[in-house]
Amino acid sequence: MSLRLRTITREEHLAFIRSRASASHMQVPAWGDVKAEWRSESIGWFDEHNQLVGAGLVLYRQLPKLKRYLAYLPEGPVIDWFDRDLDRWLSPMLAHLKAQGAFSVKMGPPVVIRRWNAATIKEAIAAKQAKRLRDVEADWYEARAFEVADRLRKAGWLQGEDGGAGFGDVQPRYVYQVPLANRSLDDIQKGFNQLWRRNIKKAEKSGVEVVQGGYDELPIFHQLYLVTAERDKFTPRPLAYFQRMWNALNSEDPNRMRLYIAYHEGEPLASTTMLVVGEHVWYSYGASANHKREVKPSNAIQWRMMRDAYALGGGVYDLRGISDTLDENDHLFGLIQFKVGTGGQAAEYLGEWDFPLNKLLHKALDLYMSRR
């Protein structure tokens, strides 16, 4: 059966997202308002009964001096990725985006290929036999995901480079997730390693208090975020970005974005943001001070967020990106080490894929991006 595709209203888009158990926070209509430097459009797929069966948020970035656009669907679109006739979804999408002036399309299928349990990763690190997660036998595979990759290649889609670390894509290919569904909070905490459990107790004994903040507390988060950016050597986003994010997401759903602050003796030591779409909950941004690290505010804040995610009916708590390095000398190793302590699972997604509608402009963009 062929599918029809057209622009849909924000209301249609949001109603479709709400009908799903899970979708990426980057595929809700309000995410287009967060990314103010891009033009956004909601698109929908309709079946023969005129029922909306798929949706996507498209972000358009204009080329300088040309009315041509890169069309980007971050962690989307939300369609039936395991349909054997994937072309009936993607062909009308490409035709529509081309008509909108797109010269290239980038998308991130929300499809997990494989998962590694914490115990498997710890064993691999201890044995020092593998430098990368991809070289370790996974605990779970999704056979259909490999079929999706084959279908995309045959249709002319190009898989994005991941630079060997899982961070070459715009969105991370490897993430770390703690399953919450069908578990008790006791069971979740028992899954933590000894260090995590000890650090949570230490924070409690030290009098660390984690509170939920609001819009007015965003400057507190941002001050700690600037400290973190200097320490970890990344370019920070301005406060206005987080204020826009708060207003956009929470006007769409009052529970979409949350802010947490860990205080010790009245001083803010760590702060995080959390995002919620259906049963999927994300730890989005994290920030911490350089001092008083011994009272373990970061462990305390994560445990509070996990408990709140659980209370909201979350099925998964997503700690977002990790590198796939298992090399203790790699500067990104600490990221996986910290998250493995939660006892969850590392997951590998299909990564991002490009379709050059105009090969010359697509190549020029590739060249420009590689020189940045």
UniProtKB/TrEMBL annotation:
<dbReference type="InterPro" id="IPR003447">
    <property type="entry name" value="FEMABX"/>
</dbReference>
<dbReference type="GO" id="GO:0016755">
    <property type="term" value="F:aminoacyltransferase activity"/>
</dbReference>
<dbReference type="GO" id="GO:0008360">
    <property type="term" value="P:regulation of cell shape"/>
</dbReference>
<keyword id="KW-0012">Acyltransferase</keyword>
<keyword id="KW-0573">Peptidoglycan synthesis</keyword>
<dbReference type="GO" id="GO:0071555">
    <property type="term" value="P:cell wall organization"/>
</dbReference>
<dbReference type="InterPro" id="IPR016181">
    <property type="entry name" value="Acyl_CoA_acyltransferase"/>
</dbReference>
<keyword id="KW-0808">Transferase</keyword>
<comment type="similarity">
    <text>Belongs to the FemABX family.</text>
</comment>
<keyword id="KW-0133">Cell shape</keyword>
<dbReference type="GO" id="GO:0009252">
    <property type="term" value="P:peptidoglycan biosynthetic process"/>
</dbReference>
<keyword id="KW-0961">Cell wall biogenesis/degradation</keyword>
<dbReference type="Pfam" id="PF02388">
    <property type="entry name" value="FemAB"/>
</dbReference>
<protein>
    <submittedName>
        <fullName>Peptidoglycan bridge formation protein FemAB</fullName>
    </submittedName>
</protein>
<dbReference type="InterPro" id="IPR050644">
    <property type="entry name" value="PG_Glycine_Bridge_Synth"/>
</dbReference>
